[in-house]
Structure formats: C-alpha cells, structure tokens
C-alpha cells in the first residue's frame, strides 16, 4: 500500500496528460520552494564567509595570544613578569603594547584615532609591512619617531606621505583630579613624522595609528604600565596549551585571550545575525509554500471521484492521507533539490569569480566571501521537511473525508 500511494502521488505530480491548472500550480510551488532554498543556502554561506573574513582580518593584526589585565585597562610591566612569559617553551617573541584613543592634528584637520605603541620587535613578527600602500615600514630612526597610519586616518587628515610628511601632532589628555579645570597644561602634545600608510580593511584603516612604544609611553605618561602584551609563538605549537601555561603562571590578575576571544562580541553578533536570517528566510519560505497548500486543496477537489474509487476498492483514510502528504513531499523535494543545486552553484561561482563586490577597498578581500557548510544544508533540509508536513497535513485530512457514494454517482 505504501508503494501504491507513492505511485499515485507521482502520477498526480507528473501526469503525461494535457497540462491543467493544478499542474501549473504544482510547478509554481516547486519554483517557490527552489527560490527560498537557494536564498537560504546563499545567505547562510555568506554569513559563514563573513565570519572567516573577520577572523582573517584580525589575524593579520592580532598576535596568537594577548595578555590583558583582568581589572582595569593597564597593568605594571616588570622584568619578572616579562621573564615569566619569555621562559615558557613555545613563546617566540614578546611585544609590549600601549593602546588608547588620542586626537591627531595635521594642518587644519583633526581626527580621533586609536594610538597603538609597539615594541621595536613588532615589525619583525607582524605582517603589517605587507599591507603598506605608501612609505616604508619604520617606527624609529635615531631620535626621530615615525607613525604608520591607516588609509582612512590619512584621508581624514588630507595627508600624503610623498608630499607633506611633517607637522603631524598627537594630543592626549592628562589625568585630572575631580573638579580641576581643563587648561593647556591638561594635555600632552607631541610631534611625530608619518612614515607609511597601510590598507587592510575599514575597521583598521579608519582608526589605527602605530607609533613606537617609547613615544606612546611619554605621550600617555604610562611609565612602566602597559595595556597588553602580545605573544608570538613558534610554528606548530598548540595555542591552547601555551594559553593554559601562561594563565597558570600569571594568575588571576591577568587574562590570556586568543584572536577569537578578543573579538568575541563581533563574532557572536555575526552568529546571531545568521540565526535571525535563517529564521526570517524560513518564515518567508513557509509563506511561499502556501502554494503547496492551495495546490493540494485544489487537487483534493479535482480528484474526489478517484478518491471515491479508491475507497470502493478498500483504501483507508490513512492511505488517502499518505497520497496527499507524499504529493506535497514530492513538490518540496523537487523544489529543494533544484534550490540546493542553484544555491551551491551560486556560491561556487562567487568563490571562484567574485561576482558580487563588497563595495569597499580591502587588501584582504574585495568580493563577498562565501563558505559552504554541511550543517547549513542539514538545517535547510529540516526546515523544508517541517514546513512540508505542516502545509500538506490539512489538505490531506480534507481529501480523506470525501463522501464515497455521492462522488461515484
């Protein structure tokens, strides 16, 4: 009986007779499911790609591990503290960092940017020099301090390395006691020479300026304080193992973070947006799938005589329901297969040719990134299955309640 119900459902879907209105509705339903399925696959793959893109961007700047204070934004840097970290097997280079916001002045322009003071060994371990679009990678030569600016910061200051390389100043407010008035003596102003401009992506391009650690130390009056320590590791070592070792040696006063943990709020936001996109598109696909409901309802009306004949041959109400549920399943299956293949093809074309641009300048990636994951295909398949069952159930119930005698006359 199960095979017979499947055979009848297939005949209703793909009859060789002259096409009628119900078959047209069936194919409209197939197209609706296909479009919804393809949209789900593409959107979910784009969110996967964006997550990987964000990771790749931050990995260009971030060290494998970063040490920060558990409380407050800075901590005291001592020779003992540095020795504890450097003595850990697998730690290659330790870079001290001072990072805070400051005001940059150049001629008549000004902009607030994030000043990052780094050790002299920073250039040897970070890939910043590979993203330079103008100038040379240098932070200090003799007594002269140099700055490396993002393209967005340089643009807002109307600064060009090859034309006007002098006259840039960085202003930082001093620590004031409550109630003290703000005067010219309340700020620290230091001059620095722009040496290069880098271009990675807007988050960094529009906010970061790299300066020597000693310059940031004097500007912000940090003395022996640091905002973080960046650890660059030997190739092939386990980041998690080193992280655990550093945490156990430093104690509760410090937290050791990898790149994902440093930007956990952004990565979490992408995951939440992906979830809401999935729910929203599934809801839209459910509405589009109402064509299946109307198709099966019309089919139940048209096939009343056929149903009555089946009842006269001993068919049960459950058997009739199975026919219509399978009819809905066939429509969804055909539509979902077409949609999955279309979504897969679009994603592969985007990966290879970059058909859709992100609309921004980036040295890492210009086209929208996409990444196909098996879990997305499973999620979409589950959604289609549940929607099909819910949509097909009511018409199947209606079809099973046909009055046999009346329709045979």
Automatic annotation (TrEMBL):
Bilayer-spanning residue ranges: 21-47, 275-296, 330-349, 370-393
A single cellular component GO annotation: plasma membrane protein complex
Swiss-Prot/TrEMBL keywords: Cell membrane, Membrane, Transmembrane, Transmembrane helix
Top-rank taxon: Bacteria
Location of this chain's protein in the cell: Cell membrane
Cross-referenced InterPro entries: ABC3_permease_C, Lipoprotein-release_system, MacB_PCD
UniProt topology in membrane: Multi-pass membrane protein
GO biological process: lipoprotein localization to outer membrane
Span of domain MacB-like periplasmic core: 26-247
Domain ABC3 transporter permease C-terminal: 280-401
Family: Belongs to the ABC-4 integral membrane protein family. LolC/E subfamily.
PANTHER family for this protein: LIPOPROTEIN-RELEASING SYSTEM TRANSMEMBRANE PROTEIN LOLE (PTHR30489)
Protein's name according to its UniProt entry: ABC transporter permease
